[in-house]
């Protein structure tokens, strides 16, 4: 099964063979990135890489996560009549403490609702700017377009405003945590008051009512803190993802072509995130004999434009195997002249380092890539071959 890509800039016919990782054969097309298209064998036909959602609609590739929507309204405690006993005075004092606690919780709830509205608006502003950039890249534009560079800087500022909202949420969470601790202490104090001597039946009746009111407040504060913590967790993950995508977008603006989301968001995290860490791949000096490369980039002319098809090929591979590792191999032709061989080897190594930089700029973690060099009898010019493991 074979996939080919064509350069949007039409500087040359560029095609990339993608090794399908689900058991299909890739022998029908030799993958390459060169000035000449590879020849298909047999009746196999090339199929295009599926476009991303941003390429299809021009809309943001990642929507902001939904925030909680609960408006935490607390019912005031029921009033009680003085009984003239010491326990009755204690009940009245505890009731006043509960009123103060509830006033604090109402203030925290008001801050939360305001923060949510502010965060949503900042996220909408950010995604509006991103959508404009993607729309321009989708139809093609000049490399390094200064208008898009300015828009990218604006998007970065708007994303930092969303990140600032997370900081405000963290401060609010600390204040709610203090209220949660106070509510638990107050509930324990109400229950301990049952053991005080000198109470009349009305004192215990009012204590029972106050215990119910305090318990409801404890539950409400816990729900508020849980929902706020979920908002912080989702927003933090969202901002981290968007930062990686902005880095990839900067590379796209540099080349004047739409890429897509960061390759870092296509891989399985090695730690955290609820995923099992993949086993470390062996760092072989050269690929296994007989294995076919995912991509071959032939540097047979100056300024080979390989970034867009390279991104598409690696992105497609990660869609099929999010735990994949990649070997970036600098390949130089075999030469009888020692001096010429040394020059070719150095040039191939520089090309491979450039490809590695391009991959990391696209978000591929360096822990997923191994860099090596070799010579090959079938290489007619300096090449960089990328293998999937």
How many strands appear in the DSSP assignment?
A: 4
Distance between the termini: 18 Å
Q: Which word captures the global form?
A: elongated
Helix content: 40-55%
**What is the CA-based Rg, rounded?**
31 Å
Average per-residue pLDDT, rounded, comes to 78
- Let me know the largest β-sheet: 4 strands, mixed
Total domain modules: 2
Number of discrete helical segments: 6
Write the topology of this structure.
Blueprint: H1 53-57, H2 86-139, H3 146-192, H4 201-255, E1 295-298, H5 307-320, E2 326-333, H6 338-361, E3 369-376, E4 383-388
Parallel strand pairs: 2-3
Antiparallel strand pairs: 1-4, 2-4
Put the structure in a nutshell.
The chain has about 400 residues and is α+β, with helices and mostly antiparallel strands.
What would you say this structure looks like, in words?
- By secondary structure, the protein is α+β, with helices and mostly antiparallel strands.
- Helix 6 (338-361) links the parallel strand 2 and strand 3.
- Residues 1-61 and 271-279 have low confidence and may be disordered.
- It has two domains: 1-52 and 287-389, 60s Ribosomal Protein L30, Chain: A, CATH 3.30.1330; 86-255.
- Strands 1-4-2-3 form a four-stranded mixed β-sheet.
- Helix 2 packs antiparallel against helix 3 (146-192) and helix 2 runs parallel beside helix 4.
- The chain is built from six helices and four strands.
